[in-house]
Amino acid sequence: MIELIEKAVLTGLGVMSLSQKKAEEFVTDLKDKYKVGEDEGKALVEKLQNMAKDARERVAEMADKEVKGAIERLGLVPREEYDRLLKRVDTLEAQLAGKDPGTEC
């Protein structure tokens, strides 16, 4: 029965939107309507929240991968590479500043 309820919750609420308040309300409903024990209800809610956390992490990873791919397709330079090149230019400018102005690179 718990598996059926779990599937219904995942479908109805959506794994990613299960807030703490909703979870507490859900446990209360389970106790009242389905005569599910509090420990059993809390275990189910904890499992659902862990699934929601995993889903959020997967979505974040996919978004990160897509953004990096878009940056690469557009030919944009990643911030790390830009910072590295800026530091290199600063170093070269400092070296040139110490030489005669007529000296070529």
- What form results from the Cα inertia axes? rod-shaped
Q: Report on the biggest sheet.
A: none
Number of helices: 4
- Counting helices, strands and paired strands, the structural category is mainly alpha
Order of helices and strands: HHHH
> Number of domains in the coordinates?
1
Residue stretches low in confidence (pLDDT < 50, at least 5 long) are none
User: What is the radius of gyration?
Assistant: 28 Å
**Terminal-residue CA separation:** 78 Å
Strand residue percentage: under 5%
Query: Assembly type of the shown chains?
Result: single chain
Helix content: over 70%
Average per-residue pLDDT, rounded, comes to 77
Give the tally of β-strands.
0
What does this structure look like?
The chain has 105 residues and is an all-alpha fold. The chain has one domain. Helix content is 79%, strand content 0%. It has four helices and no strands. The chain is rod-shaped and about 85 Å long. It starts with a helix and ends in an 8-residue tail after the last helix. The mean pLDDT is 77.
